[in-house]
Prior knowledge:
The chain has 663 residues and is an alpha+beta fold. The protein folds into three domains: 2-61, no CATH class; 68-249, 4-Layer Sandwich (Glutamine Phosphoribosylpyrophosphate, subunit 1, domain 1); 274-613, 4-Layer Sandwich (Purple Acid Phosphatase, chain A, domain 2), CATH 3.60.21.10. 29% of the residues lie in helices and 21% in strands. It is built from 14 helices and 27 strands. It is an enzyme of class 3 (hydrolase). Its cofactor is Mn(2+). It is found in: Membrane; Nucleus. It catalyses: Cleavage of peptide bonds with very broad specificity.
Amino acid sequence: MALADLAGYPAHRESARPGIVDFVERPVGHLDEFNLHWTRNVENAVKPVTNGVKCGPVQIDFNHGTTTLAFKFSGGAIIATDSRASSGSYIASATTDKILIINKYLLGTMAGGAADCAYWERVLSKQCRLFELRNKERMSVAAASKLLANMLYEYKGAGLSIGTTIVGWDKKGAGIYYVDDDGQRFTGDLFSVGSGSTYAYGVLDTMYKYDMKNEEAYELARRAIYHATHRDAASGGFINRMLRRLLCSGCFLFLTTFVCEYVLYYWTIHRCSWPALPHGTQMEYPLPYNFSRVLVLADPHLVGPVRGHRLDRIRRDWQIRQAFQTALTLLQPKLVFILGDIFDEGSWIGDADFRSHLERYHYIFQHDRSKIIVKNVVGNHDIGFHYAIYPYVDNRFRRKMTPSRNSSSVRLWSHAGVHYVMANSMAFEGDECYLCSEAERNVHAIAYRLQCMPVNRSPTAVARCPLEEDYSQPKSFVDLDSDTSRPDSYTRPILLQHFPLYRDTESSCSSQPADAMPHTGRLKKYRPRWDCLSLEASQKLLEQLRPRLVLSGHSHYACQLEHRLPGEPDTVVPEITVASFSWRNLPNPSFLLPHREEKNKDGWGRELVLAYYNHSEVCASNPTLYLDCSCLGNLAVSQPPCFLRVAWQLGIGRILQPNDCSN
């Protein structure tokens, strides 16, 4: 105004004719941009008349017609309206949305003049947003309705046509307020506004009750609007309800959740196949001993009560279970090995929490015991590192995780003519403790047993091996369910343990798998007895057991290395470190699919050929506030499905493109 006065610009009020409008300055700070100066002395200016307004000699006639309602119930509050917009006897629109969104916690209905309702509730929306920015909290439903009533009262008698119901949710719960163009404001549990409100009240007064289920409330709102549209000529169209919005959003979220949390697991894993055998298809070989499909996973780290939140625990358990059960359904393995760190806090939880962990373990890794064998290897998170192991915790894990089986620190298990040595990696410290003594004893005994098998006896071994050994007799180092029906079957064993064999760094590992360690961490030095076995323990295991394959975990990343047997530089022993099976440790967890085949080899009977190393991407999602879906595995599509693209655009989902799992 100061600039206008300096420039000599005439004031706005001079453009009005004296005597028609009596100007009075009114402090309406919340509407400075609409600071209209007038009084209620509008006899010669704007005068409301029946079905319209009169401004001087001009009379504007218009009819109002609508039906809106809102009521509270035990589940919250519901709004319903018709959709007809009329202009006198003319139906202007049959698809008008009369539910106005002020913000995501506040709604209003439209009854009266459509332009007036839309405009003033848009102004209210702006004021609510400004209040939230100034005060760092949302405006309550009562305050919003009071603000609208105050604004409308300033223009009482100006010919506005507004009858709105403000409905929202705040700290006090659901709130419903009726506000009209005279500035009147009422609160209650049930309101109906519009020309069809009397008919809607007839239904509401008869059937309304507070204790209703959601479906009953939806049906009552629908029935009241439906009845009004049949009795009121100005009401009609279809029924606008917040139920319709909720259903659209709910269906979208349900469909997205269903696809991301269920379908994508099958979509990805069904493309993961067993390694092709070098001699043809498996149907060319007799069963049952020629083939064993083995699924190997490591480090599931079931979340504990100390370092994990309950929501995190529920989320990770669901991901691991869904991936594991999908793999069992589609891949149908015969053997499953879990290479340690089954629990994240197994070394310090009490018995009550341990029982809870056991229940979760049996639920997540549920399987048909008549068709699938699951073997567990102990890890440092299950019982602790070497100097933190309590005998009670160690024995508790042995009893519960290896029931009815031998649970020694190093044990031999034979299945279908193939021998597996399962070792406790924390028992190779070499300090002659009870664990280390037992492990050293059992390693010697297992090596002796394998060397003295009839088919493996060399001329030098005959003198020190018993001629008649009863392999069916139980041994302290042999699993009780070990297959002893084929004592003449010898293959070099497969060593299963949690710690990898000695390695200086991860730099010598292949970077090809998608679940390999990132290059930024490959040069970090490994600590013997913490990150891997010591060099002495590794050499001793290779020399005495002469394994043909070593499977390990612990590092949470995939790695493939080759070792040489001491004294036999031409004999290569591959080692595969399996990546973690938990999304908490790795963004792309995986499992290993080895496929065994036996063939005859001259002079040595059956020899194992292992077609191994097929890392498969598994499927899951990361938690966010609403939903975060991950397209896991290479989906081999140019564009994701429509609803996934919509999820991306709304910011509630993200789509990954990991490598093909069949590499």
